Amino acid sequence: MATLADKLSEQAPAKVRKISWAAIAWFGILLIAAYFPILVKLVNQWATDDDVSHGFFVPVVAGYIAWTRREALLRIEWKPAWWGIGLLVWAAAQAYFGMLGAELFLQRSAFLMSLLGLLLVLGGTGLIRELLFPLLLLPFMIPMPAVIYNQITFPLQLFASAVAEKSLEVLNVPVVRDGNILELASQKLSVAEACSGIRSLLSLSFLSLVYAYFFDRKVWMRWVLLISTIPIAILANSARVTLTGLFSEIDASLAQGFFHEAEGWVIFVAALIMMVVVHLIINFVYRRVHKESSPPKEQSLA
């Protein structure tokens, strides 16, 4: 038989915990101060490298998503996980050795590791679970290591130039390809790293997760859309290289300068639309399959 105290505890609303914003602000300032030289170089790369210019939006979007979950954060039980201190020590050592070896990725990833350790110390694993999605977005603000970057961009350059060669031949445009260089009747076009599609791939991957978070409640949809951005970005970039070659035969100035940059934005918007269409198609198929698999409702004779 349940006691009166048990019944009252079941009926009582969930306890809302007051967050010590002063403590969070203090530790946040200390974290930024400790990694300030590393963060300054990171922000400078966002401003000068178009491939990672989306980095400005990543912490803003992640912070906004965390803010929308503030009610859930107030209701969880904050239990400090002191093993987070070990993570902080590891991150500090990683940042130190990264600075000694001039390895930017180690330095920048150490900042994210320190942030994770700090959250563990403040609120424990429960806090991490509530902030898991915005935390998973933060790595998008860090440029990938040069070794991995070079291994990805060159195959993308070759693929885009090969697709452009075949497409131009179908359009009766004379073209000869030598690696990532397209030789047209009027000029030679080089598919450089900036035209490899890695920029749109990184930006589109980040946007796919954010889009799925706000417009679809199914968690698995985020990862499906993330995977779908790979072929979408590659095909969109191949179309851009093809159009550049086609327009350059009309006017060589169309293959460079403002028009070339504007063409990139148009193709990127087209890739976003393709991602939305893929989302709609997957949801349509999902609803049809779910509807067919669900048992029919019994009709009342009354």
Architecture overview:
It is a single chain. The chain is mostly helical. The chain folds into two domains: 125 residues, no CATH class; 146 residues, no CATH class. Helix content is 71%, strand content 4%. Helix 11 packs antiparallel against helix 12. The longest helix has 37 residues. The two termini are 41 Å apart.
Write a short abstract of this structure.
This protein has 302 residues and is mostly helical.
Itemize the secondary structure elements and their pairings.
Blueprint: H1 4-11, H2 21-34, H3 36-48, H4 57-68, H5 70-75, H6 84-100, H7 104-130, H8 132-137, H9 146-170, E1 175-178, E2 181-184, E3 188-190, H10 198-215, H11 219-250, H12 257-293
List its salient traits.
single chain; 302 residues; mainly alpha; 12 helices; 71% helix
Quote the beta fraction: under 5%
Radius of gyration: 25 Å
Oligomer kind: single chain
Element-by-element helix/strand order:
HHHHHHHHHEEEHHH
Structural class based on helices, strands and sheet pairing? mainly alpha
Number of domains: 2
| Major β-sheet strand ordering | 1-2-3
What's the N-to-C terminus distance? 41 Å
The number of E-state strands comes to: 3
Quick check: average pLDDT? Answer: 82
Tell me, what's the shape?
Answer: globular
Low-confidence stretches: 7-14
Percent range of helical residues:
over 70%
Distinct helical segment count: 12
> How would a textbook summarize the main sheet?
3 strands, antiparallel
